[in-house]
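Protein of interest.
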Amino acid sequence: MRRKRSSSGIIILVFFIVVVAALAYVYNSSIFERKTPIVELEKEIDWNLKQPIKVKIKDDSGIKFVRAVLSDGTNSITLEKRVFDQIQKEVILDIEFPRTGFVGNKKHFELAIEAIDASKWNFFAGNSVVQKALINVDTKKPELFIVNNSYKIIKGGAAVVVFKAHDENLESLYIQTNFGKNFYPTPFYKDGFFVSLLAWPSDEENFSAKIIATDKAGNISKESVRFYLKNRKYRVSKINLKDNFLDGKIADLASELSQNASSMTPLERFKFINEDVRRGNEEIIKKITSKVPKERIESFSVTPFYPLKNAAAVASFGDHRFYRYQNSEVSQSFHVGLDLASTAEATILSSNEGKVVFAEQNGIYGENLIISHGLGLYTLYGHCSNFLVSLGDEVKKDQPVAKTGVTGLALGDHLHFGVLVQGIEVRPEEWMDSSWLQDNIFSVLDASKKIIDR
């Protein structure tokens, strides 16, 4: 009797252990995972009916079934239904609007995406999920037209455009150029109106600009900005490198900027400074000066820039320099500023109000100061001996901001003065000319306001 009871107890214990082990296996096994598939679908979507809605579905155990159903509240249409013989880790659906099935010109629908994974959970039925999205049909393009713009733009110079862009669901707005640069506008004067300065780089042979407005549904409006294009030829210089320059200024600067300078040849040091360091310095400048204010402005006005009193120009903007050494061309660069010189450590003035956005050492530019004047317009001051302002300072018109010097790649005491429009260097001479400012910028803005007020 005792043996029978003992045997029964052992059987029950073994059975219990087997059940617990089985449950533990089911609970922890990857084939019994309990996570539902992930459906990448926004809760609300604006749809122009032209481009398909892309829906990504993914699951670690694989997907065996998906279904997409579109409903207008009365009727429902199955747009997609797939059963996979081979388990898919990821499925992408391109949802297109059905040509038939819905009556009337309805603007709102519900899209339901159902997915079941290949897990053995739920008694081998798998984990399922249904995700829904509200669909707003929008087939109307954004309103877009140009109010006014500068008559002409000169190679290496700047211009301005004012335009209207309106859509309740406007998502992106920019000005596309033929050379890959996008300019971004600032809200101007009244709701729905925008303004942007534009720039034609001195090293680009052609210029074209097109305003692109896109709403959340993907509807796009485009409008070309028409300028009279005026070509301008810039100086081409051939410079023979001297050994005393390579062993002097270049060697000193390379030692400051590279730990490997001593292992380089004089020519390698020059190429390092003129190409690698210059490229990095210009990237820093471009990043800082590409920022555009998003707050609406009522007007924009600057006076001509005269950063250095009684100064003479010693190097021009746009100069394409080819460097030669031992009768071979070894490197090249563009001079994208205006070099001005007067006396040693002369006082540099900010001709207009602005904010200091950069004030530190920057390679070939030496002690480098950058001031923002609004509307994506920046002025740059290179080779300074010291700063009289700090990062973040608000500067006033005619306020002393720095002293000239020989820092960076400067052979004599001077100021490298640059003007930039959204990261593009432009001719400083334009912004030093009151007639140019009036004819090409201010008169356009004044006329635009009158047109808007009509």
Q: What stands out?
A: Helices lie at 2-28, 121-124, 243-257, 266-289, 428-431, 434-453. The CA atoms of residues 341 and 414 lie 4 Å apart.
